């Protein structure tokens, strides 16, 4: 009798554990989150944009000086969002990766931007049961055949 109860409880625990893992992550959810984040910037929706980031998020921009905490990035963005003169990045190639326990997700994406094609990469973590952007890094892409010309510009 005790063995039967143990097996039943073990089965229930296994099912609950599997259900929890399945609800923690879906690629569609992550794609929507990232697309909504980029859309919030394009629509100058400051609350939505920063609402999709963790409280201790980091944003790294294209300039060497652009390594911001969430609070610093918010201060930088506020005037642009208030004027409605933000950026409109559109992802066209995105790869999503997950940790085994599905609590950490990282990604990279190519973006059409006003700067041409850029690359973004980042990390999402679970915060209060929802995925949020914890780290984002934006970089400008340069074709290999143009690197010498770029290095000359950079030195000047």
Write the layout of secondary structure elements.
Layout: H1 2-24, H2 27-42, H3 46-51, E1 53-60, E2 67-69, H4 70-83, E3 90-98, E4 104-113, E5 116-127, E6 130-140, H5 147-155
Parallel strand pairs: 1-6
Antiparallel strand pairs: 1-2, 3-4, 4-5, 5-6
Describe the protein in words.
The protein has 156 residues and is α+β, with helices and mostly antiparallel strands. The chain has one domain (25-155): Nuclear Transport Factor 2, Chain: A. The protein has five helices and six strands. The protein has helices spanning 2-24, 27-42, 46-51, 70-83, 147-155; strands spanning 53-60, 67-69, 90-98, 104-113, 116-127, 130-140. Strands 2-1-6-5-4-3 form a six-stranded mixed β-sheet. A hairpin with a 5-residue loop joins strand 3 and strand 4.
Structural descriptors:
Nuclear Transport Factor 2, Chain: A, alpha+beta, 156 residues, 5 helices
How many β strands by DSSP? 6
Helix content: 40-55%
- Mean pLDDT, nearest integer? 88
List unreliable stretches of 5+ residues. Answer: 18-22
Structural class computed from helices and strand pairing: alpha+beta
Please state the overall shape, judged from the principal axes of the Cα atoms: globular
Number of helices: 5
Biggest sheet strand order reads 2-1-6-5-4-3
What's the architecture, going by CATH?
Roll
What is the CATH C-level name? Alpha Beta
Distance between the termini: 81 Å
- Largest sheet, if any? 6 strands, mixed
Beta-strand residue fraction: 25-35%
What's the order of the H and E elements? Answer: HHHEEHEEEEH
In the CATH hierarchy, the third-tier topology is known as Nuclear Transport Factor 2, Chain: A
Count of individual domains:
1
């Amino acid at each position: 009798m005790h063995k039967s109860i143990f097996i039943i409880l073990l089965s229930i625990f296994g099912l609950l554990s599997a259900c929890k893992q399945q609800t923690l992550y879906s690629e569609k959810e992550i794609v929507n989150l990232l697309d909504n984040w980029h859309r919030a910037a394009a629509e100058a929706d400051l609350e939505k944009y920063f609402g999709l980031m963790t409280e201790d998020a980091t944003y790294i921009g294209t300039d060497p000086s652009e390594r911001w905490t969430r609070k610093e990035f918010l201060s930088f963005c506020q005037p642009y969002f208030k004027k409605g003169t933000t950026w409109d990045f559109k992802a066209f190639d995105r790869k999503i990766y997950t940790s085994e326990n599905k609590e950490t997700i990282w990604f990279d994406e190519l973006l059409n931007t006003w700067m041409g094609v850029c690359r973004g990469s980042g990390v999402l973590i679970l915060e209060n049961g929802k995925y949020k952007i914890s780290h984002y890094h934006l970089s400008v892409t340069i074709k290999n055949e143009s690197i010498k010309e770029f290095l000359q510009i950079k030195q000047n």
